Each structure stands twice: as structure tokens, then as C-alpha cells.
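Entry 12.
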Amino acid sequence: MTDADLRTRIKEMMVKNLMLQITADQIADDAPLFQEGLGLDSIDALELAVAIERKYRVTIPDEAVGKRVFSSVSALAEYVSANRPG
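Predicted 3D structure (C-alpha cells):
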């Protein structure tokens, strides 16, 4: 799977799991996910972390890592790519 494919799948998962009122195409790869970006909140972060762990078997070990990983779709895709098994 290419990096672009992974970013697209993560965006699609976000739209579906977080019930966003936008399409995956409307999410910029490097846009912030929280506050001024997509406006996600802590509940969204938890739901997204669980979805990522289930789908890609990647654990986000603590809040410090989470803040870095959830900064953008690109950061999340990079983390998943580097840490998923196999």
C-alpha cells in the first residue's frame, strides 16, 4: 500500500467513524486535525485511536505520542506505516 493510499484510507475511516459532515477528499493531508483544522475534540481522538488500533494493530502509547501522531493525516499515516506489524 502506498503512502497516498494509506492517507486516503485514514481519511475515509475518519469520515465514517467520526461521522464528519465532509468527504475524505475535503481533508487536506497536512491540515491540523484539532482546533483550527477539522475541529476534532478529545472524544474524537479517543474514537480515532481505537479505530486505528483495531484496523492497523498500531498502539498509540501515551498522550505525548498521540499529540504528535494526531497532528495531521500525514503524521498519522507516517506513524501507522512505521509501526504496524508485518
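Annotation: The chain has four helices and no strands. The chain has a mean pLDDT of 93.
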